[in-house]
Specification:
This protein folds into 2 domains: 11-177, Glutaconate Coenzyme A-transferase (3-Layer(aba) Sandwich); 192-427, Glutaconate Coenzyme A-transferase, CATH 3.40.1080. The termini are far apart. By secondary structure, the chain is of the alpha/beta class. Helices cover 26% and strands 20% of the residues. It has a 9-stranded mixed beta sheet with strand order 8-16-14-12-11-17-22-25-26, with helices on both faces.
């Protein structure tokens, strides 16, 4: 790869700026700079570093710095626990900083976390000397603002996206070249349960709504049900391949949005190569700072914001656990409460938590009480719509006993009697079983 008027060095040379005790921020998700991470680990194995703190949102691909072999050398304190570091975090070799996704940038900008080095990926510079962060802006801009050194991997596979993703090459101190394709994810076709959940969620989405959805089969199942809708918009922390067909059909056009009208707004992307190619030089897509995408008060400016997120467990009062299995950290707070609160404040907005009624092993995800140590991400005061494959119920404005009755109606039939009995024992003789 030839880059005009730009000096590049090798990954091993670039990571020599990292010193023991430094805090290093990595760009996230599909855009994690794998060649720099591998070079950093080579220095760690050579005994050249110790007590280096690593920070990022979740990343796709290998995350070797979190492994046991680097104990005392690298300490991962992530803002979200992805599958590639879940075991290490549960075993204590990595750790997690509980934080709303929209506030990750504040950790840097307000000095709660230092940052000496930022490592990221960008597309090749244009004629004016501007590069793009491509598929992941997240908290990287905030880290760049305070970091002593910014290392960028120039990668032709990084799409040139717009919005806050566009930065001058002058803001980068060190350049490295790599042509490794970005990490991709091909989401499986929704199964019957996920499809049923998708239908119930889609029935709650009105024409002219602004959508936020997370990652996985349920969001894709929802999008697959929206072909007959009109004038939908996107303001989200991320989107995947499922939006492309709806944009091409004119279903998603952003015409009803109050801000960023006609634009799809996100802070990171994750999907197939088709998605990354689709966003390349696409002026309809704005990749923005996470402090913008996930600010509840900005979210609420759009009408009919419909936020669809998931959960690991829900209790009979509407407490939503989405980050842990009991005491074991599973994911993170993420942007759930950012969008639950933002959608709740939006004119005509709806905050939806959607989940299968049972686990793969048949254990009810609706429980009398959350598992000991479970993290409450969305409080029962924030909870509005709850959806399973058995239907949708609105908890807002409902008393605890009313909530229990409603929630039990969308639990798996095999578990309803036991949940009814638990509610009776909790609330006393005034509580009446669901018939």
């Amino acid at each position: 790869m030839e880059i005009k008027n730009l000096k590049t060095i090798t990954p091993d040379e670039a990571v020599r700026v990292i010193q023991s005790g430094d805090h290093v921020h990595l760009s996230s998700v599909a855009s994690a700079p794998q060649c720099l991470m591998a070079a950093m680990c080579r220095r760690g194995r050579a005994g050249e570093l110790e007590n280096v703190h690593i920070h990022h949102l979740h990343t796709e691909g290998p995350a070797p710095y979190a492994d046991r072999e680097f104990e005392g050398i690298f300490q991962l304190d992530s803002f979200f626990v992805g599958p590639n570091v879940r075991t290490q975090t549960q075993q204590g070799y990595a750790d997690y900083i509980p934080v709303f996704l929209g506030e990750t940038q504040r950790l840097y900008r307000e000095g709660h976390l230092p940052c000496q080095v930022v490592m990221l990926q960008v597309c090749p510079p244009d004629e004016q000397g501007f590069v793009s962060l491509g598929t992941s802006v997240d908290a990287t801009l905030a880290a760049m603002e305070i970091a002593g050194t910014v290392i960028a991997v120039i990668n032709p596979h990084v799409p040139r996206t717009f919005g806050d993703a566009v930065i001058s090459k002058d803001k980068i101190d060190v350049f490295v070249e790599d042509d490794t394709p970005l990490e991709t994810v091909d989401f499986a076709k929704p199964d019957a349960i996920e499809a049923a959940i998708g239908r119930h969620c889609a029935a709650l989405i009105e024409d002219g709504a602004t959508l936020q959805m997370g990652i996985g089969a349920i969001p894709n199942a929802v999008l697959g049900q929206l072909g007959g809708h009109k004038n939908l918009g996107i303001h989200t922390e991320m989107f995947a391949d499922g939006v492309i067909g709806l944009v091409e059909k004119g279903v998603i056009n952003g015409a009803n949005k109050a801000i960023d009208q006609g634009k799809m707004v996100a802070t990171f992307l994750l999907g197939s190569k088709k998605l990354y190619d689709y966003t390349h030089q696409n002026t309809q897509v704005l990749m923005m700072d996470v402090g913008y995408t996930n600010d509840p008060f900005i979210i609420a400016k759009n009408p009919k914001v419909t936020a669809i997120n998931s959960a690991l467990q829900v209790d009979l009062t509407g407490q939503i656990c989405a980050d842990s299995l009991g005491t074991k950290c599973y994911s993170g707070v993420g942007g759930q409460i950012d969008f639950v609160y933002g959608a709740s404040r939006s004119p005509g907005g709806k905050a939806i938590i959607a989940l299968p009624s049972v686990t793969d092993k048949g254990v009810s995800k609706i429980a009398p009480v959350l598992l000991p140590g479970a993290g409450v991400v969305t409080t029962r005061a924030h909870a509005h719509w709850l959806v399973t494959e058995y239907g949708a119920v609105n908890l807002y404005g409902r008393s605890l006993q009313e909530r229990a009755r409603l929630i039990i109606t969308i639990a798996h039939p095999e578990h309803r009697e036991a949940l009814d009995q638990a509610a009776f024992e909790r609330f006393g003789s005034h509580y009446h079983f669901v018939k």
